[in-house]
Amino acid sequence: MRDVPPRALTIAGSDSGGGAGLQADLKTFLCCGVHGMSAVTAVTAQHSRGVVGVHALPGSFVAEQVVAVASDIGVDATKIGMLANRDVVDAVVDVVGSVDLGPLVVDPVCASQHGDPLLADDAVHALTSRLFPLAVLVTPNLPEVKVLIGLEVRDPAGMREAARRLFDLGPQWVLVKGGHLDPESAAVDVLYDGSSFTELTAPRHPSVHTHGSGDTLAAATTAALARGLDVPAAVASAKSFITSAVDGSFPLGSGRGPVGHFWRIRA
Questions:
Q1: Contact criterion met (CB below 8 Å) for 86 and 126
Q2: How many Cβ atoms are within 10 Å of 5's Cβ, its own excluded?
Q3: What is the largest distance, in Å, between two alpha-carbon atoms of the chain?
Q4: Alpha-carbon distance 241 to 177, whole Å?
Q5: Class of residue 89 by CB neighbours under 10 A (exposed 0-12, middle 13-18, buried 19+)
Q6: What topology is assigned to 7-247 in CATH?
């Protein structure tokens, strides 16, 4: 009998276009050598041009999915993405305290790349006050930083200040993603543990097809944690993965296409 591979769970929304959300997470888990599982928080109707509709599931059923997976299969690391509303946030916080989900990576999804809202206003405080303190790592992009703490970041110094403020909300580590900074500069993310900063830099590819990039980075980090890497090594591994995935992105539909999750195996 073969050994059981590392196991990672995503608690996230579904993207009917397949480029982001739990679909992106499961593809990333597979390509990173990890068995992927999912608890669906919301079903979206979306395509390459944006989100058409959102249907959130009851928080109690989200929790039921998590317990079902954790109690039988087991979980080595968990990524938490789109939570949609306060009911789902509260349910996820409660279930995290009742089962072993391994280290938690929280990707605080507030809006799509097209600006479509994906988190209700009354859920933001619950997310930062109740869920962030349970996280090993939170991974906001710059528009999410503005929603979460009201800080508009325009440069690397602003990213460091954002990381400090987010760290004060309780997570063990913060990764502020700089993809929305100057498109002519390198892609720089800032990792912070409360005492020191680490900048992760990679070439910025010119492709506009970056749908699902944030989900993919967080999922690749989660997969690395499930394989036993520590946070800095997991984030570095994920940075390498998403850089290649953006390089391997492709046009799909008439809008913004997805990153190429399967760049390692694409013919």
A1: yes
A2: 14
A3: 53
A4: 15
A5: buried
A6: UDP-N-acetylmuramoyl-L-alanine:D-glutamate ligase (3.40.1190)
Tens-digit pLDDT string for the chain (267 aa): 678 899 999 999 999 999 999 999 999 999 999 999 999 999 999 999 989 999 999 999 999 999 999 999 999 999 999 999 999 999 999 999 999 999 999 999 987 776 667 888 889 999 999 999 999 999 999 999 999 999 999 988 999 999 999 999 999 999 999 876 866 677 899 999 999 999 998 887 778 888 889 999 999 999 999 999 999 999 999 999 999 998 888 899 898 989 989 888 775
Q: CA-to-CA distance for 218 and 11, rounded, in angstroms?
A: 12
CA 57 to chain centre: 19
Tokens of 244: 């290649």
DSSP string, 174-211: EEEE-TTS-TTS-EEEEEE-SS-EEEEEEPPP--S--B
Eight-state DSSP code of residue 111: B
Cα separation of 108 and 101, whole Å? 18
Per-domain boundaries in the chain: 7-247
